[in-house]
Amino acid sequence: MSGQDVGARWAGGEPPGSAPPLPVIWSRRWAAAGSLPALFAGGAACTYDQLDERTRAAAGRLVGTGMGPGDRFLWTAGPSIEAITVALAALRMGAVLVPVSSGMTEHEVGVLAADARATVAMVDGPAQGRWVRAAAPATRVLTAGLEPVAGGPPLAGGGDRPLPGPQGPLDVAAPGDPAMIVYTSGTTGRPKGALLSHRNLAAGVAAVAAAWRWSPSDRLVLALPLFHVHGLCIGLLGTLSTGASAVVVPRFEAGAVLDAVTAHRGTLFFGVPTMYHRLLASGRAAELGALRLCVSGSAPLPAALWAEVRRAGGVEVLERYGMSETLLTLSNPYEGERRPGTVGLPLPGGSARLEDGELLVAGPSVFGGYWERPAADAECFVDGWFRTGDLAAVSPDGYHTILGRRGDLIITGGHNVYPAEVEDALLAHPSVAEVAVAGVASEEWGEAVTAWVVPSSAVPVDDLLAFAATRLAPYKRPRRVHFVDALPKNAMGKVQRDRLG
Ligand code: AMP
Q1: Are 415 and 401 in a shared domain?
Q2: Nearest CA, atom 1, ligand 1
Q3: How far is the CA of 321 from the centre of ligand 1 (A)?
Q4: In terms of residue numbers, what domain contains 484?
Q5: How far away, in angstroms, is 322 Cα from ligand 1 center?
Q6: Atom 7, ligand 1: residue with shortest CA distance
Q7: What is the pLDDT of residues 18-43, one digit of tens each?
Q8: Residue nearest atom 9 of ligand 1, based on CA coordinates
Q9: Nearest-5° Cα angle at 80, 74 to 84
Q10: Which of 113, 212, 322, 397 has the fewest C-beta atoms lying within 10 Å of its C-beta?
Q11: Is the same domain home to 262 and 284?
């Protein structure tokens, strides 16, 4: 998919309740919020008036480099007000933001820079600048302060002035214009860039803001990485589009998060399951009780962990489900039953259905296709519905349970086994802190159900197997158990199953 037809696949044309693009929403919200705080980060703070002024100035500098609407802007995500300002400026001037992690290797940065064919890149150090240049020699490279890095192609533009808006060159992107390319964390082959339109972003934010009663008086404690949709599109853009505020915690650490909750009187926390695990382990989980809402996503939140957080923290974590390609599509209700082990019901404006056990979703936050990947688009869309690749089940009253990625399904002795079901059963054992289950090739079984267990206290394998036998049919029980110190996980706390073993 190229820039023009982004979002065209939304079934039935214009989505219901279509929101204006985020920059248009911002110009209203930010003017109304004025001198109220928008962001706290790294000991600094910035009000909405300052955010407006700084993003205008940064947009002027970006235009001054010769970058225009629709051009890809490789942005190294960072938890500072300076870095965030640059990302917002790029969105305001109509560039396509391509977030990357500062932790990426030379190979990873090179692949994304070349694939996105970025006009301009903002890097966070000289090494990363060299990597971008080696892979994409035409890309102009800037520092986080938007100074050109010496030795690259000359900057093409002449201007370097704050841009006027909304009538000027700022805030004029149309809803269907491309806003962001988010590379998915595929483990093999060339990574795919999910191309999200301004409409997708605005709809994604509007849905969660309405569902979770997000208001200007809320303050989010934001410890998620900003190169991923969870932190960037939901946490940061959600905050700035509702006129609320956020405290950016540079790296998740349980003590730092809980200190920020108290010091800044936080009302919201969005995390991944590993974070809840660590908050419990800190012995300070009771402090979560000061928050209005705790949300979990990006990976399955085991029902046992949900119950522990409720016991120790007095909060019922609200679990929701989403993907880079779709933003959030399913959520437990804010009011009403938050059912552990499930991701709830479709968010406002969205729809979900199952086909052969696979979850399909549609709605205004669902992207229109991958960046220049027609073959991948043809495979993942059917009549305007996006195939998520996740297996799911739905209860008679509409609550969805994610059973795992289709590719992770274990076929053992001709039976289908969902790793999540076996993991949940083992997690209920008091000596199991964390567990991952996968199939390992076996002559006898095709695949043998295998568990990697992080114990919280010593436990004989036979005890675990006897415990599993009380909860799982024989074909679902692990054939092998490995005790490990930690599970391999990516930055979002997702278990990397290809690295087990
Ligand atoms: P990403 O595009 O990196 O956000 O990854 C999306 C994938 O994360 C989904 O396809 C699911 O496999 C997984 N995921 C996200 N939220 C949940 C959840 N609440 N429970 C289980 N899996 C989830």
Answers
A1: no
A2: 323
A3: 6
A4: 410-499
A5: 6
A6: 323
A7: 679 999 999 999 999 999 999 999 99
A8: 323
A9: 45
A10: 397
A11: yes
Atom 20 of ligand 1, residue of closest alpha carbon: 300
Q: What atom of ligand 1 comes closest to residue 297's alpha carbon?
A: 19
Q: Rounded mean pLDDT of 88-109?
A: 95
Amino acid at 55: T
Structure tokens at 71: 């051009």
Q: What span, in angstroms and rounded, lies between the C-alpha atoms of 229 and 173?
A: 20
What's the pLDDT tens digit per position in 335-355?
999 999 999 999 999 999 999
C-alpha 372/C-alpha 61 separation (Å) is: 28
Confidence of residue 485 (pLDDT cuts 50, 70, 90): very high
* CA 343 to ligand 1 centroid distance, Å: 10
- Say how many domains are in the chain: 3
Closest atom of ligand 1 to CA, residue 182: 2
- Do 328 and 189 touch, CB atoms closer than 8 A? no
Q: Identify the residues whose C-beta falls under 6 Å from ligand 1.
A: 184-185, 229, 297-300, 319, 321-324, 343, 388, 390, 402, 405, 492
The strand ranges marked E within 212-346 are: 219-222, 245-248, 268-271, 293-296, 318-323, 327-331, 345-346
Question: Within a domain: residue 14?
Answer: no
Average of per-residue pLDDT values in the chain: 91
Whether residue 103 is predicted with pLDDT greater than 60 in this model: the reply is yes
Which CATH number do you get for residue 63? 3.40.50.980
Question: Which of the four pLDDT bands, split at 50, 70 and 90, describes residue 396?
Answer: very high
Same domain, 231 and 279: yes
Residue ID of nearest Cα to ligand 1 atom 16: 298
Do both 66 and 29 map to the same domain?
yes
Q: Kindly state the average pLDDT of the residues 474-486.
A: 94
In a domain, 142, yes or no: yes
